[in-house]
Amino acid sequence: NAYAINDPERFPYVEGVAPQVDFEARLIAGGENTTTTVIGTTPDYPYVRDFYLAKGQFISDDDITRKGLVAVLGHGVAQTLFGDSEPIGKSVRLAVGPPSMSITFNFRVIGVMEPKGATATGDEDDLMFIPLPTMQARIPFLRNPQGLSNVFQI
């Protein structure tokens, strides 16, 4: 459990923990769309992954508590969807599933990550970040038969 690992009394040398769950989804904004990896995570993600904002803000503790419909875009996703327009404050529709039966949610863009490029785990610019509890509450296929959420990485 990520929260247990982040307990400073039990693990005093752990500096940060950022659980993540990810899946592929279509993103739509205005007349543009793209398919990308959506990562549900927590506020420590930028610190743990050494990946920081170019502008705006990252997911906050309040976004986690409220299960907010807020998103932070990777640099490449922001360019694809918004070009030279300012994405902060704009809406992005996330669509999961086949087009004829997709589940959709509208997220407000609160930040854009700095360009990072490709790493061993993929293209870091081709991502969208949302609060982990938002993802766990709204995306049904991410839960196991007991209704518990699966975490893919800690």
Automatic annotation (TrEMBL):
Listed GO CC annotations: plasma membrane
GO molecular function annotation: transmembrane transporter activity
Ranges for domain MacB-like periplasmic core: 9-139
Pfam families: MacB_PCD (PF12704)
InterPro entries: MacB_PCD (IPR025857), Macrolide_Exporter_MacB (IPR050250)
Name of the protein: MacB-like periplasmic core domain-containing protein
Protein's organism: marine sediment metagenome
Higher taxonomy: unclassified sequences, metagenomes, ecological metagenomes
